[in-house]
Amino acid sequence: MKYIDIHGHPNLSQFDADREEVFGRAAAAGVGMVIIGTDIESSLRAVELARTHDNVWAVVGIHPTEASTTIDFDVLKSIARDPKVVAIGECGLDYVHATPEEITQQKEVFIHHILLANEMGKPLMLHVRNGKEMTGAYQEALAILKAHAQVRFNFHFFAGTPRDAADIVALNGTVSFTGVVTFTTDYDDVIRSVPLTHIMSETDCPFVAPVPYRGTRNEPVYVIEVVKAIARIRTEDEEEVRRQLLENARNFFHP
User: What is the 3-state secondary structure (H, E, C) of the chain?
Assistant: First the structure.
């Protein structure tokens, strides 16, 4: 394994027609993957796929936009016990379209995930997003983590400020970036400012395919383009960046 996509969704229906081909392309290129659950059904599917493929692992949890649904945490806990499950999530705070009441629910569900991660001794895969008018999600998530978390955490698809990133790193958290970094400079300052030891690579497939695949369905093998972009932005040797990002993932998921 030379690369790893630490956050993708090949368990979704967009891959039903050619899922095994997608896994095959990743394996041929030396790309491992971590499949993310967003509810009970997709979490179960993530574990099933992880069990039947090499260099594939699962993360199980409830997406914050699903926080208002009925959640059976006993079921989630039973799924999380599987040895192929390497983290809890994706969980966190999503303020994009949330009402104040929904944010309260999100925070309660977020804390439940943190407590489960503590109990299982597995890190947290976080989804945190600011809204256009309702900001502060990153700092509020960090406050909740400070109060409750006893495990490491990663802010996936990081879109916060350099200050948010510095505060995450100060708590020994990590941030990960997607193919967006191949077609915008919005994240360049953060990518340069964060220590390389606290960065990981992801696709968030099937969304946000990187250049030169922009506009098509994303897939795990395209994480190679993300790694190349991170090295280019940091003006560092691509092979050194590749090795460090892989090591970061190993340290995060299998300390």
Answer: CCEEEEEECCCCHHHCCCHHHHHHHHHHCCEEEEEECCCHHHHHHHHHHHHCCCCEEEEECCCHHHCCCCCCHHHHHHHHCCCCEEEEEEEEEECCCCCHHHHHHHHHHHHHHHHHHHHHCCCEEEEEECCCCCCCHHHHHHHHHHHHCCCCEEECCCCCCHHHHHHHHHCCCEEEECHHHHCCCCCHHHHHHCCHHHEEECCCCCCCCCCCCCCCCCCHHHHHHHHHHHHHHHCCCHHHHHHHHHHHHHHHHCC
From first to last of its 255 residues, what are the pLDDT tens digits of the chain? 999 999 999 999 999 999 999 999 999 999 999 999 999 999 999 999 999 999 999 999 999 999 999 999 999 999 999 999 999 999 999 999 899 999 999 999 999 999 999 999 999 999 999 998 888 999 999 999 999 999 999 999 999 999 999 999 999 999 999 999 999 999 999 999 999 999 999 999 999 999 999 999 999 999 999 999 999 999 999 999 999 999 999 999 985
**Whats the size of the chain, residue-wise?**
255
CATH of the domain spanning 3-253: 3.20.20.140
